[in-house]
Amino acid sequence: MKKSNWKAILDAFTGPAIEYLESLPERRVYRHAEPEDIRAIVDGPLPEHSTPAEDVVADLGRDLEPFVTAHSSGRYFGFVIGGLHPAAYGAELLTSTWDQNAGLYAVTPGVAVVEDVARGWLLDLLDLPRDCSVGFVTGGQMANFTCLAAARDSVLRKVGWDVETDGLQGAPHVNVVVKSEKHSTVARALRFLGLGHASAIEVPSDRQSRVDVTGLRATLGKLEGPTVVCVEAGNVNTGSFDDFVGVADAVEAHQSSTRPIWVHVDGAVGLWARASEARRGLADGLDRLDSWSTDAHKLLNVAYDSGIAICKDASAHQAAMSVHASYLIHSDTEGARDPMDWNPEFSRRARGVGVYATLRSFGRRGVAELVDRTCELARGFGDALKETGKVEIVNDIAFNQVLVRWLAEDGDHDAFNDRVIERVQHDGIAFFSGTTWEGMRLMRISVSDWATDEDDVRRAVDALLQAAAAE
Ligand SMILES: *Cc1c(COP(=O)(O)O)cnc(C)c1O
Q1: What is the CA radius of gyration of the chain?
Q2: Looking at ligand 1, which residue's alpha carbon is closest to its atom 4?
Q3: What is the pLDDT of residue 226?
């Protein structure tokens, strides 16, 4: 075998990596750059000849680092982007080092078992039925896709149609019911599945973006045939949770052999409420539903990218995802799990290993504390801003999300809001992103990093007030 100078690669990597990680507490979180600024440094013709690998790595560490956004800084509150737990980081380094193709047990038994252990821990932590199936996917988008593929399989199979074999051509119509404030990835997953999103029936949401259960009941009452319903734990704007008990009751009242109903919960952020005693009540009744998607790279702080798809009906999940080919070696040994049966990828990264390491390091209590701390910091953040009299807090802070409306002296709150966000992003002390909600331009605060502390919140509040004063 050809020898490589692995030590030179690690040496080229370790210095910049340590410097970067240690700079996080004080580092600028974001640097605005035009594409040509970056191209001026990284672009050029495709090299004709080879360059030593360690030189490429050293150059990348030097060239790209100034443009990197500090997502794992405690002062990054944009979108819903999680930080980086050290155990997740270490596990990802190992996973890259081992370069495992984790598609089949027979190809790599060790990581297949570790992923299966992570599956069990997740179901225990989230208190979902312990025989649920779990797919480790790239994120919430693919988790929604995977769960909705299982949903499509199940409701059609119950009316005698095998969608895996026969597709949707000539299939019975599948009703899809969504809430008006659904996440865009739900609509996108429906698109990928040939169900379309414009044809989905929209049930109104209330002022906190929760699905109107009376409206859902009325909608279900009018429908015939196989039906898929999508609800949500942790709305991307308000952080609110749907009334899962109400949803489960409505579905049970309308479910029948000719009207099979599958309810999917998009729990990208909110599913973790199940891990906290204090916040579990938000997710009551959720275990009565059929599938759940979540992200490990958001609140759990596993490295990007990592999402989780969970289904109560493992056979529907497997039917939707599994693949057989003459040259593959499928395992039928008890406890030998083939990851490719549960996710849309074929060859794949061993994503569950980072989940395993992070859960092992946090422990049950650590995850609960993480959920509680991020939610309490979000509330403290909202309170601190509200006290200044310069903003209105638009949502009930139920979880880790705060919706802020900056109040402009000239009355043009929308424009002022966008200017404050832009200025604070440019200043680089903290990062926030905006949204349009109920026709208003607002600023979102999302506390999703295990590393965020009170001091980060205080500094971010100061940065925001300074930006607002300068506008
Ligand atoms: C972030 C998010 C998603 C998408 O997750 P990705 O990991 O970005 O694919 C889906 N639903 C909700 C509610 C989210 O917050």
Answers
A1: 23
A2: 140
A3: 98
Please name each of the domains of the chain with its CATH number: 91-359 (3.40.640.10)
pLDDT, tens digit, 9 for 90 and up, residues 208-259: 999 999 999 999 999 999 999 999 999 999 999 999 999 999 999 999 999 9
Q: Whose CA is nearest to atom 14 of ligand 1?
A: 268
Q: Which residues line ligand 1 (CB under 6 A)?
A: 80, 139-141, 183, 185, 234, 236, 266, 268-269, 295, 307
Per-residue pLDDT of 345-369, as tens digits, reads 999 999 999 999 999 999 999 999 9
Among all chains, which residue has been given the structure tokens 């013709």?
45
Q: What is the pLDDT of residue 334?
A: 84
Dist. CA 18–CA 7, nearest whole Å: 16
- Whether the model pTM is above 0.85: yes
Q: Are 372 and 409 in contact (CB under 8 A)?
A: no
Give the neighbor-by-neighbor strand order of the sheet with 307-311: 133-137, 307-311, 291-295, 261-266, 227-232, 175-179, 201-203
Smallest CA-to-CA distance from 178 within 223, 245, 228 is with 228
Percent helix, strand and coil across the chain, each rounded to 5?
45, 15, 40
Mean pLDDT of 1-22: 95
Per-chain mean pLDDT for the chain? 96
Q: Quickly tell me which residue has 């259960």 as its tokens.
A: 213
